[in-house]
Every structure is written in C-alpha cells, then in structure tokens.
Amino acid sequence: MQNIQDSSAFVICDDLYKIFKVAEIEVMALQGLDLTVRRGELVGVVGASGSGKTTLMNVLGGLTLPSAGRVIVDGKNLLKLSARELTTYRQIEVGFVWQQGSRNLVPYLSALDNIKLPMTLAGVAGAQADARARELMDKVDLPHRYDHRPIQLSGGEQQRVAIAVALANEPKLLLADEPTGELDSTTSDQVYDLLQRLNRDDGLTICIVSHDPTIAQHVERVVQIRDGKLASETVRRRPLADTRMHDGRGAGAEATESWQDHFEELIVLDSAGRLQIPKQLREDLGFENRVEMEVTADGVLIRPARNLEQTSSQAEIQIEREIRAEDNGAPAGLLARFRGRKT
User: Fold this and answer.
1) Domain annotation for the chain: domains and CATH numbers
2) Cα separation of 135 and 192, whole Å?
3) pTM for this prediction
4) Which of 76, 155, 185, 289 lies 20 to 30 Å (CA to CA) from residue 179?
C-alpha cells in the first residue's frame, strides 16, 4: 500500500484495477498498478497499445473511475468525490492535451476564444478572461495568432494553443496524451521545450503519455506500463562534474559545473514482491514459468529452473513452448489437442 502521508507525493495510484466490459467479455486494463508522482515532476508514461497507459490518464483526469484501488491527486481521493466535485475537478484542477486537434480546439473559434471557453464554463468571463487568454497566448509564444482559427495554424501552433487551453483555469496537473504524435521531430522538440518551461517556471506537475522513443530526453523520469502494471522506470541521472580552471600562475579560478546526463532503467518491484522481466529477455535466458533464486553477495540471482518435469507446471510449460514453436512456423502437439485440432 502506498504511503499517502508523503508531502511530496502529488499523485498516488494504489493497487489500481480497471475492468471494462465489451459485450460479454471483460477486459482488465489496469491490474494492480502502483504509481507515485512528485509535486512539480515531469513524467513520461510509455507502453505498448493496450498496456493501460491511456486508461491510467483517464483515471487521473477523472474521466473514468477505477474498479478497485485508490487514486489520490493533491490529497483528494477521486473515488470519494461527488459527481459535482468530480466535474469541478475536471474543470479546474486538471488540464488535458490530446493528440487529435479536433479534441483540443473548437474549429470555428479563434485561438483566444478557444482559451476563454473553459474559463466561461467555470464562471470567468469578460475582461478577466480576455486578459488571461492573451497572457497564455504570450506564454506559448503565439502573440501574433490571437484571432486565428485552428485551420489557419500549423500543427505545432495548434498544440501550443491546446496547451494554453488546458492551462486556462490554472490547473495543478497537466495530462498530455501523445501531444507530439502527429508532429515532425523539430516541432515535437518545440512542444517538449514548452512543457519543460511550464514545469520549470510554474512548478506544474505534468504527465505525458507517448510512443516517442526519445521522450526520456525530455522528462525527468519515464515509467513503462506492461499488462496494466508498472513494469519499469527510466530515471535521468545528472552527475556533477566539478572542473577547476587555473590561470597561468597556477591560481585556482572559479569552479565551473558541467552536466552529463545518463539514463538508468530500474525494474519495478511491486508491493506483492512481483517484478516483470521483459519477454525478450526471458526468452533469451531460457526462462519458463518457474525460476530459481539464490541470494549472493551482490544481491539476488535469478536463473532458469532445473528439473521442470518434476513440477506441477509441466503442462503449462509445454503449451508455452508450443505457442513459441507455432509463432516460428513449427507444428503444434499438446496445444493442438487442447484446441481440438488434429496433429
């Protein structure tokens, strides 16, 4: 269970489950996910399609509620909010930026009017809303686009206006779902630079869902979701190199600081003691569904189990092997019989 007393923890997801029912089939999008985001942190969320990352963003945004678990944002347990309180949360305390421009902007409104719309819905209008909209257009470096409609803006400009719209009611949390998914690399860098500036200058907590393989270069931390659970984290490390310049007489000049970033991937060990070893790594190491663990001087050694034929998992292991064989074009044996096919 996550510690909700940590004052630096702005977002806490504790053992989250989310089950969707499609026709008569239940799909588990989140399966015991734990996640903590510090106040003022810039975090990337990655994962394959169907891994649960967009579901997580919708839960954090109050657009959907989890089936079980707890989600706490800025001290508020979203599961305990009334319908009216949840509406206020979505309007005021969280901002959204979507990949598709049609979800961010109203096509027949100018950039300024798009920004003023969420303020009007929240009860702010007139000169106050107009001044705030102009301030935000300047903040996203578009002071010359006040009266332009979305069709008159480039893709990158549309996303910057979308960010301004998301900031209209001064939210504490910004959620961006693939904000650079339809942009070229140069324009994507501009959008990332803007998000970094908002995070740095305004202390805004930002979570970005992305398929962009370079996102680790733009955020403090990347969390990977696999099968509805947090699987790994990639943390940006910034070691300080202290170099001292010396003049010709050997006297020490002022110290200069240089930073050299590197990235460290950490496998997540959840509250039940489970960790996810990537599929490719399991196959490369010959792991089946049983392993051996040994405590060594350096930590814990995990290696393939021996004498698997003596375990109760032998049938499962045989099926897994045949699935891999089928993927490689080999004929199936036991699996075919399970499926009622002739071998």
Assistant:
1) 40-58+82-236 (3.40.50.300), 281-343 (no CATH)
2) 20
3) 0.77
4) 76
